[in-house]
Amino acid sequence: MLHQDWMHLALTQAQMAFEQGEVPIGAVVVHHGRVIAAAHNEREQKNDPTAHAEVLAIQRAAEVLGSWRLTEASLYVTLEPCPMCAGAIMQSRIKQVVYGAMDLKGGATGSVMNVLDYNLWNHKVDIVAGILEKECSDMLKLFFSRLR
């Protein structure tokens, strides 16, 4: 499968968040060519500021693999990860992050800053940006326009 195929699955998760009144961000973790975890934002539902799609997907993937080390996994997420999520990505040793839309206000993997690009860390993460960027961005714009 191509990056776009996996991102479509993350968009499906984002749509679920949208329908639940959550900021529509979705994530999937792919390991050896299969999805092992999927999640969407659940901050409102759980009243938990850490219940971001990425963090939930990473937790679920670690549970599936029985290990916190996700060294052979790729994370697909519809919006560029924030600093908290970038930290979780680094700590889980994810091999690759693929995201759709940039987050020009809080992105931490390329737009505002790149937490994962520093030479201080013991783990390097490959980053691919802009996959289905328009679709990911349009869903967020629609969500926030409806809030207003």
What would a concise description of this structure say?
The radius of gyration is 14 Å and the shape is globular. It has helices spanning 3-19, 43-46, 53-65, 83-92, 133-147, and strands at residues 26-31, 34-40, 73-79, 96-101, 126-129.
Shape estimate: globular
Which class best fits the helix and strand makeup?
alpha/beta
Count of beta strands: 5
CATH topology descriptor: Cytidine Deaminase, domain 2
Q: Which quaternary structure do these chains form?
A: single chain
For the record, give the distance between the C-alpha atoms at the N and C termini, rounded to a whole number: 38 Å
- The gyration radius over C-alpha positions equals 14 Å
Order of neighbouring strands in the sheet with most strands = 2-1-3-4-5
Helix content: 25-40%
Mean pLDDT: 96
The number of distinct helices, counting runs of at least 4 residues, comes to: 5
CATH class: Alpha Beta
Work out the strand percent.
15-25%
* H-E string: HEEHHEHEEH
Q: Mind summarizing the main beta sheet?
A: 5 strands, mixed
CATH architecture descriptor text: 3-Layer(aba) Sandwich
Number of domains: 1
Contiguous uncertain segments of 5+ residues: none
Tell me the CATH superfamily: Cytidine Deaminase, domain 2
Organism: Desulfosporosinus metallidurans
Function: Catalyzes the deamination of adenosine to inosine at the wobble position 34 of tRNA(Arg2).
Protein name: tRNA-specific adenosine deaminase
GO molecular function, one term: tRNA-specific adenosine-34 deaminase activity
